[in-house]
Amino acid sequence: MANIIISPAKYVQGKGELANIAQYATKLGKKPFILISESGKKRVGGIIEDSFKETGCELVFEAFHGECSKNEINRLVAIVKEKGCDMVIGVGGGKIFDTAKAVAYYVNSPVIVCPTIAATDAPCSALTVVYTDDGVFEEYLWLPANPNLVLVDTDIIAKAPARLLVSGMGDALATYFEAKACQASNATSCAGGHITIAAITLAKVCYQTLIEEGVKAKLAVEADVCTTAVEKVIEANTLLSGMGFESGGLAGAHAIHNGLTCIKECHHLYHGEKVAFGTLTQLVLENADEDLLDEVITFCMDVGLPTTFADLGIENPDKDALMEAATLAASPDDTLGNEPFEVTPEKVYAAMVAADALGRYYKGF
Ligand SMILES: [Zn+2]
After folding, report:
1. Which one, 181, 233, 286, 333, has the greatest CB density within 10 A?
2. Percentage of the chain exceeding pLDDT 90
3. Residue 140, pLDDT score
């Protein structure tokens, strides 16, 4: 099998960059279809309109209905065709740009992704996660290409709540360890091949960036400013983790995240918050050395990512519920099989309980 890496055709990140969107977009089409939430349009719609002012492009704004479902994708595809738009722009969070990517695929047009938060590593990928109208996971839609452009305005992302950036750090925390597991087991990545030196290097730098800049970035965003540390963490969460997971592969952390979704106490958590605990559990499964565990747990505590069951909202851990989550995580359809050793639900359960014990030890209770 070949070594494969894939990426967006172009990645642009900087303060105030959304104001330059027309400069990039007019190279791809003349009539953009812009998918955005009502509140997103109020916040940044004017910046987009001003950018296109002198271009002669006609903009078609459409409000997102809230779920990346087949019905919503079909509704939007029909509007794009009816209005004769030749490019799709998704502005907002994960579900908006996943929908924009799918719509562009079905109408065979270029797509631009403009994240207004850095809460996951989804913007750069050639993947859309499709849900039912009620928000239940339905399927992965693997797209033939990554976005033509990912445009990241760091001023806008820095203004979003700090918890979203921290959640993005939780998602990015897993990337290097999952890529390393896939490399050790010779697993196939989401890009459809084995890992390149490039992808494992991006994943490693992603982790190093979080450790070096994460706390500084969190404090800056809480103080309502965008600093160099914030910019570095936005790149780690979005580009480094995005390319790292897609061309590096997923393993324990995301499988354990998926297992945790069956525990109702965890439903209030963001994706990256559960992935952070999944990462800690994966490291326990792999029997990582104490120095590494110390670095990861200290990082999580410093930025406010969960390290214990109590942090996840599970006040009274119930063995049956945890076993159910462990069994779901170890399902053959998920990515725990990408760990370089045999993993059973019992081992996952033990690792989750031991991860919680470590987290409590560090917190002093
Ligand atoms: Zn993720």
Report:
1. 233
2. 95
3. 85
Task: Report how far residue 309's alpha carbon sits from residue 263's, in angstroms, rounded to the nearest whole number.
Answer: 11
Annotated binding-site residues read 94-98, 121, 125, 127, 131, 171, 254, 271
Q: Residue 193's pLDDT is what? A: 96
**Annotated binding-site positions for glycerol:** 121, 171, 254, 271
Q: Is pLDDT above 80 for 365?
A: no
Is the pLDDT assigned to residue 248 strictly greater than 90?
yes
* Identity at 45, one-letter amino acid code: G
Helix, strand counts (H, E) of the chain = 15, 8
CA distance 278 to 352: 8
CA of 140 to the centre of ligand 1 (A): 13
Annotated active-site residue 271? The verdict is yes
Is there a common fold for 11-158 and 162-363?
Answer: no
- CATH tag, 11-158: 3.40.50.1970
- Please count the CA atoms within 13 angstroms of the CA of 346 that sit on its side-chain side: 1
The CA 76 to ligand 1 mean position distance, Å, reads 26
* 267 part of the active site: no
Which of the listed CATH numbers 3.30.830.10, 1.10.10.10, 1.20.1090.10, 3.90.700.10 matches domain 162-363? 1.20.1090.10
Mean pLDDT computed over 226-253: 97
- Rounded to the nearest angstrom, the distance between the alpha carbon of 50 and the centre of ligand 1 is 34
Active site residue 257: yes
- Evaluate if residue 191 carries a pLDDT over 80: yes
Q: What is the pTM of this model?
A: 0.96
- Amino acid letter at 250? L
Annotated binding-site members for NAD(+): 94-98, 125, 127, 131
The H or E element spanning position 196 is none
Q: Give one DSSP letter per residue of 90-159, joined into a string.
A: EEESHHHHHHHHHHHHHHT--EEEEES--SSS-TTSSEEEEE-TTS-EEEEEE-SS--SEEEEEHHHHHH
Domain ranges for the chain: 11-158, 162-363
Distance CA(338)–CA(141), nearest Å, equals 21
Q: Could you please report the per-residue DSSP string of 19-77?
A: GGHHHHHTTT-SSEEEEE-HHHIIIIIHHHHHHHGGGTPPPEEEE--S--BHHHHHHHH
> Which of 153, 194, 257, 334 does the annotation list as catalytic?
257
